[in-house]
Model the fold of this input.
Amino acid sequence: MENKSTELRHLRYFLVLAEELHFGRAAQRLSMTQPPLSLSIQQLEASIGARLFERNNRGVALTAAGQALQVSARALLEQADRMMREARDVGEGMTGSLEIGFAGTVLYLGLPDMLRRFEGDHPRLRVVLKELSSSDQLTELMHDRLDVGFVHTTRVPAGFEQIKVSSQPFMACLPSSHPMARRRRLALSSLKGEPFALVSRSVSPDYHDRLLAMCAGAGFDPELRYVSRHWLSVVSLVGQGLGVALVPASLKAASLPGAKFVPLAGDIPPYETYCLWKTSRSTAGAESTPALGAFVQAVRASAQAV
Done:
């Protein structure tokens, strides 16, 4: 095992030097001095029986043997890293499945990219996604049918922990043929008398009540004409010229035809998304699970990076 570890270390040193083509810079990247790096490369060359680098006054260059080794060494180290991650996951209980609930707009807030990174780090852990309304997620979480949820509500009962993962503005969503669709900014009051499309209150009570309050603050009661269970259906209805809507800005990324998004003027409260999980199942809880703890850490790191 020690010989294998030494060989892998030599290969890691080789790859860094192959990228830098400079012993001083490579040694700095590896947090070591130049003499032991040179010795490691010499030992690797002796083990292989071929020169990997040409060294002269002008610098360092890969030989044909070095170029061939660079490709295979990178693949070998990636395989070794994957094997070690899998062994670590088994040892730490990072196997089985993780049930994750989400509301539709989270797909446009970086969740897919975060999940790809998380699954890459924990390949033996099966991640299952379930699209549910915020209220349905809370029910599933309370009955332990979900491990974690991504919701658009602040009405969270006791016994939950949460991380705010995004805060985005509301935008007016108009048919592209609408006279106000070309405006750079729109006063909410200008939508008075327009037919509104919105997500139903049973799906998103926070959003429904927020929309009514926003319109009331702008001096009118919205004409609620089209009610849907999905955000994309709301935008699609608008795109087909059937009404207007107030939607989270992230839905602009859906690029549905016929819909134009216009920023709202004035002080409009943002639309916030939270990651929730039961306190009793958190990393500090008596019923903690390593997989949930690792996922919470990934969410927290992703939220801090935004």
